């Protein structure tokens, strides 16, 4: 279809090639099932909110401490389907001695390596478009960790709720105008963004809670600024 | 439990009905939630749709509407809705709209069913709205020792029974032989099945009344009658009896209401004993009756004022003992009346006998027997028509001042609306009062009625009964016939609306200290009492107590089936909430007031209070429809 072709973006050929070229069957299945058509409406697309807790901001030096994934769609977020993994950081990575929020040292010692739970993680993401708040963290950390363990690149389109927020509050002309009137730019951190939509404050820094918080934020953003028929190609990064 | 969901669990677990759940039950709830965001203005539930979940407001606000489009409820953070629908075939009844951006936790209906089956408190909470009326007073009564004390425990010996044809001499002789101070007089020829019983031989008798020492004194000796007079002629007409399983409290109230010192105690219809005031007083030395006795023994107004702490203690004990609002209201009104009566007696003793006959009139809550711990005085003087202001008013002004000042010293504050006998307008001869009432009834005006509403609850406090009775008769026969009066009163009754979104921040008021509160008198009991008064007048009821008025209204078809009961329930809940908060004030050494602070109200009572406000709101809607006032139209036109 003409419209479909027009909507083709850089991600679609990438997903197709990864579905064929990935090293492991798990990853091939993940890419095959990925909701890749940019014309698909967001309202009917299965989604999965992801949040990582990391020991720092540099994927070469820091490690993923925990992952929270919550499958959802624009109608509802099922708490019972949420998943949470505490991970043992690889040797040599900063994080072994980090003071974990909400995670007991004992849990970490017993925790698996990311490679051990990767099939479960891929399973819970399968067929779903990932949603994160501030995508550079999730994208770079996941890619780095998965590539190190499987040799396969782990990059895929996703929706970034911070990006959506930035489109509204960090438009260059608006920011310049705002500064002219002495206004500080609106914060687009998760908690501050949520507050703008009347969402309750959650105690942050727990992967599942932040993932749920991100999912709720996307529901709010779509209701306020978009619609269920907005194509995912307009939203993903 | 995944510790990650604790955030959600903690919020739910802090709100009723979940706050009473076990950790396991809460885990079950938390694992079966679907979260959804609703933008302000969007519909969360449409009417008559299948429902698959109990809806919990995590943040935001929701309004639930009736199918008619009227607001049914406004809910905030931590509230639930959809439970009525889940209980009734899992279909929604009323649509729900998000009025703010709202986050909903939808709790799976199967979990809801499991909780209803396994947790009685949960089931009670969500099923509220069904007939809840009996359970409120039931539980209070059971939970309480003293209130549960049956009057039969105080019955020490079998009653002395005398036949109505016996002579006074015979009866007196039997009394003298026994330590009992009263005889039950029975008659074979009775026609009142309520007091008719069969004796051991199967013979039918009717209990006619109680004969006491005082009756022999007053009716035989003082009147110089023959000792051969049959006792049928000297026994007082009215029999006051209580069932043996009624409480001591109820028996005490029966004495107060009927102003008697002896009660027959019957089991079903068979008399099993006689209870004397002294028996009850001995049992309850600190009771309101005891207090009343000591009021009348005071020789000076200062002595009366010193009884204020006793009044409060008596009320605190009644409320703590789980008395219903009617018991407390009657007790406090009786105490209030005795204060006023004693003050009048003391004033008369000092000022000398009145130049013309008069009646001291009680109005408002005292006349309705609905006083609480915060009450001001509403009184007036109705004077005989021979009253001449030049000659006599000096006396009555002094009388009014003494009573009014005395009441103020005893804790009954001056009336802010100046409805007191000290105001010359309210110190008038009967004919003027009749003119007042006729003008209120025939040419009412909402503004003028606003402050004289309470004149339609009037009672004799002291003096010439007939003066007050004339006015009561006038009100009972004429007020209900005046559509204009009912419409004007309706308009006033609709001025004060209940806070439908009770416990939601934006409907509470703030005091100087920025504490949240709701004035439960202004927003609840007062508009409810106003509304009941209008219906009572319309159906010609002569009752003054709001519960009695409702009973009269129930006999007519004025309100729909069940409505009078629902209003009784609402009045009970709101009155008790008010009394309980006043008691709390006293116990925490604050001056009691009519405000309740939502945070002091346990979750269960909150639900009852909400239900009561809802009943009031519905009743107000009916009132608006039933008595559409011409004054409404005039007002609109003049804008």
Automatic annotation (TrEMBL), chain A:
Gene Ontology molecular function, alphabetical: 3'-5' exonuclease activity; nucleic acid binding
Residues making up the signal peptide according to the UniProt record: none
Gene Ontology terms: cellular component: cytosol
One Pfam family in the UniProt entry: RNase_T
Ranges that cross the membrane: none
Domain Exonuclease positions: 46-227
Entry keywords, A to Z: Exonuclease, Hydrolase, Nuclease
Entry's Gene Ontology BP terms: DNA metabolic process
Organism superkingdom: Bacteria
Keyword Zinc-finger: no
Keyword Transit peptide: no
Protein name: DNA polymerase-3 subunit epsilon
Species this protein is from: Spiribacter vilamensis
Organism placement in taxonomy: Bacteria, Pseudomonadati, Pseudomonadota, Gammaproteobacteria, Chromatiales
From TrEMBL, chain B:
A molecular function (GO) term: [protein-PII] uridylyltransferase activity
The keyword Membrane is assigned to this record: no
Domain Cyclic nucleotide-binding residues, every copy: 17-115
Source organism superkingdom: Bacteria
Keywords assigned: CBS domain
Domain CBS, chain residue ranges per copy: 155-227, 235-291
Pfam annotation, one family: DUF294
PANTHER family: CBS DOMAIN-CONTAINING PROTEIN, CBS DOMAIN-CONTAINING PROTEIN CBSX3, MITOCHONDRIAL
Protein name stated in the entry: CBS domain-containing protein
Organism the protein comes from: Spiribacter vilamensis
């Amino acid at each position: 279809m003409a419209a479909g072709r027009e909507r083709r973006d850089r991600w679609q050929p990438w997903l197709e090639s990864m579905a064929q070229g990935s090293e492991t069957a798990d990853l091939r299945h993940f890419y095959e099932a990925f909701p890749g058509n940019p014309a698909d409406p967001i309202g009917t697309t299965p989604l999965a909110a992801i949040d990582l807790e990391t020991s720092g901001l540099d994927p070469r030096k820091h490690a993923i401490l925990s992952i929270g994934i919550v499958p959802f769609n624009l109608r509802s977020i099922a708490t019972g389907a949420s998943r949470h993994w505490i991970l043992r950081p690889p040797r040599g990575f900063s994080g072994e001695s980090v003071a974990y929020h909400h995670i007991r040292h004992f849990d970490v010692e017993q925790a698996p390596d990311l490679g051990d739970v990767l099939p479960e993680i891929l399973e819970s993401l399968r067929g779903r478009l990932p949603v994160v708040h501030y995508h550079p963290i999730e994208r770079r950390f996941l890619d780095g960790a998965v590539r190190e363990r499987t040799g396969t690149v782990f990059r895929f389109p996703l929706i970034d709720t911070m990006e959506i927020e930035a489109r509204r509050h960090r438009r260059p002309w608006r920011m310049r105008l705002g500064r002219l009137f002495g206004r500080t730019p609106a914060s687009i951190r998760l908690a501050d963004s949520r507050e703008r939509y009347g969402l309750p404050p959650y105690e942050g820094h727990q992967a599942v809670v932040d993932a749920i918080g991100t999912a709720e934020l996307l529901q709010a953003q779509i209701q306020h600024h978009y619609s269920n028929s907005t194509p995912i190609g307009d939203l993903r990064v | 439990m995944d510790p990650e969901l604790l955030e959600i669990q903690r919020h739910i677990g802090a709100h009723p009905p979940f706050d009473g759940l076990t950790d396991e039950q809460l885990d079950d709830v938390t694992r079966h939630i679907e979260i959804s965001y609703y933008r302000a203005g969007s519909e969360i539930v449409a009417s008559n749709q299948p429902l698959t979940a109990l809806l919990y407001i995590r943040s935001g606000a929701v309004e639930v509407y009736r199918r008619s489009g009227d607001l049914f409820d406004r809910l905030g953070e931590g509230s639930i809705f959809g439970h009525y629908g889940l209980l009734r075939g899992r279909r929604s009844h009323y649509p729900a709209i998000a009025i703010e951006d709202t986050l909903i936790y939808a709790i799976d209906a199967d979990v809801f069913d499991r909780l209803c089956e396994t947790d009685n408190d949960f089931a009670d909470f969500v099923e509220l709205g069904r007939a809840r009326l009996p359970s409120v007073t039931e539980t209070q009564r059971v939970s309480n020792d003293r209130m549960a004390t049956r009057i039969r425990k105080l019955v020490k010996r079998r009653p002395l029974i005398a036949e109505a044809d016996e002579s006074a001499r015979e009866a007196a002789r039997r009394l003298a032989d026994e330590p009992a101070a009263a005889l039950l007089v029975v008659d074979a020829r009775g026609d009142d099945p309520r007091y008719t019983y069969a004796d051991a031989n199967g013979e039918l008798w009717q209990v006619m009344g109680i004969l006491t020492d005082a009756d022999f004194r007053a009716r035989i000796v003082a009147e110089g009658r023959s000792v051969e007079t049959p006792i049928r002629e000297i026994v007082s007409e009215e029999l006051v009896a209580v069932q043996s399983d009624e409480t001591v409290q109820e028996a005490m109230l029966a004495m107060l209401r009927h102003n008697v010192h002896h009660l027959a105690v019957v089991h079903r219809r068979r008399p099993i004993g006689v209870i004397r005031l002294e028996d009850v007083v001995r049992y309850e030395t600190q009771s309101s009756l005891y207090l009343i006795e000591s009021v009348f023994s005071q020789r000076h107004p200062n002595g009366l004022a010193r009884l204020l702490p006793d009044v409060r203690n008596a009320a605190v004990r009644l409320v703590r003992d789980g008395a219903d609002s009617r018991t407390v209201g009657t007790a406090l009104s009786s105490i209030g009346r005795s204060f006023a009566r004693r003050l009048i007696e003391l004033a008369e003793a000092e000022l000398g006998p009145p130049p013309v006959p008069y009646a001291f009139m009680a109005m408002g809550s005292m006349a309705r027997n609905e006083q609480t711990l915060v009450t001001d005085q509403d009184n007036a003087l109705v004077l005989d028509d021979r009253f001449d202001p030049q000659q006599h008013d000096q006396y009555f002004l002094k009388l009014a001042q003494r009573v009014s000042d005395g009441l103020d010293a005893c804790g009954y504050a001056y009336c802010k609306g100046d409805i007191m006998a000290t105001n010359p307008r309210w110190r008038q001869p009967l004919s003027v009062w009749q003119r007042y009432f006729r003008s209120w009834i025939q040419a009412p005006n909402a503004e003028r009625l606003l402050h004289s509403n309470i004149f339609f609850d009037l009672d004799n406090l002291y003096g010439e009964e007939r003066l007050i009775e004339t006015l009561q008769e006038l009100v009972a026969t004429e007020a209900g016939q005046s559509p204009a009066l009912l419409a004007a009163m309706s308009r006033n009754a609709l001025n004060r609306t209940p806070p439908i979104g009770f416990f939601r921040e934006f409907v509470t008021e703030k005091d100087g200290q920025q504490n949240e509160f709701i004035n439960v008198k202004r927003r609840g009991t007062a508009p409810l009492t106003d509304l009941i008064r209008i219906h009572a007048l319309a159906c010609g009821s002569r009752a003054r107590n709001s519960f009695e008025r409702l009973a009269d209204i129930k006999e007519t078809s004025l309100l729909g089936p069940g409505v009078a009961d629902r209003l009784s329930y609402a009045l009970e809940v709101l009155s008790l909430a008010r009394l309980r908060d006043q008691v709390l004030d006293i116990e925490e050494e604050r001056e009691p007031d009519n405000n309740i602070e939502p945070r002091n109200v346990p979750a269960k009572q909150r639900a009852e209070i909400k239900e009561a406000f809802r009943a009031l709101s519905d009743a107000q809607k009916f009132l608006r429809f039933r008595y559409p006032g011409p004054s409404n139209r005039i007002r609109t036109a003049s804008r």
